[in-house]
Amino acid sequence: MLLKQTCSKCIIDETVPGTWFDDQGICNHCKLYQRVEQDWPLGVEGKRRLDQLVGKMKAAGEGKAYDCVVGVSGGTDSSYLVHWAAQNRLRALAVHFDNGWNSPIAVSNIKKVVNKFGFDLETYVVDWEEYREILISFLKASFPWADAPTDIAIDATLYRIAEREGVKYILNGSNFRTEGKMPREWTYMDGRILRHIQTAYGSKKIKSFPNLNLWDFLKFSFLKRIQLVRPLNYMEYRKDQAQKLLEQELGWQYYGGHHYENIYTRFVYSYLLPEKFKIDKRIITLSALVRAKEITRDEAVERFKQPPHPSEKVEEDVEYVIKKLGVSEEEFNEIMKLPAKSFTDFPSYFPLISKLAPIVRIVFQLLLSWTPPMFYEMDSRKREAPAR
Prior knowledge:
Strand content: 5-15%
Number of strands: 5
Number of domains: 1
Helix content: 55-70%
Order of helices and strands: HHEHEHEHHEHHHHEHHHHHHHHH
Strand order of the largest sheet: 3-2-1-4-5
Largest sheet: 5 strands, parallel
């Protein structure tokens, strides 16, 4: 039996789409990490850039109710980001997108974090019947990242609220050092795909669900000049230390896994992706923690050998999802048997974004001195790939 080639530095292997190795057995994800580190420095320079960012947010917020908008989920990163905003005396509006799948721990964490610092909280509650059908449509479409509608809706909600409040900055809790970069084959999603899947597999038109098309994104980013910023990338940030701080200061609770504060996301991560699509996203996040020196490579290997979630918990989640979505067990089992698909099987903005990315980066840098993440990251694989 042939063994899968695995990176000599992290645990990423050749089953991860777009992966290649140099003559020393080092994967392109590790090489990309080294390049991105130069764009997001730590230490003195990282502190200088953070201070500069705080100053810009406060200046842009003069005469307005808020300096920035921050999405909160009850998870580690967003909770710590609220803590950081409070420490820097930013007037942040906390926004939570309630998709009906919050775990009790997540709800409790959000209340504790917001109340501790006295921030205003705005909760957008999705129309459940409309959203339920969209989720079922994505399952029927065999789209890998079945939780993509939530990601789209969160971004759309944050941009719309920022526009309404005249806010120019949205704080995002993602951090390449502790999360890594997922291959686009596993996570790519856009508003055109969402609209197509719901039209093809659902029976209801999208009415109130906050979708985000490409033109809206460009309007918010270019015309309204609303920036999505990632402060954690400039910090010596460790998830374990952040969790300990939040527990000690706020009575915050851990929820058992990456993005497991949301029940549906947990279902997708721990059951749907591994079972149907043979995708275990932990290979990316564990490798990121190895590069960040939070854990050793051997520790990552041992963690990856363990199931994403205890089997009895997975069974509970599957049963809960089936019941909450209102599908029969037979229908769910048939859905699980459908052939797996890729985002490339659906109409999307991806071809257009790929062509526009180099031009958009230049225009945004010249006029606004920043680049939207969608376009900054689009062709990173192409720029990193070795010549053939």
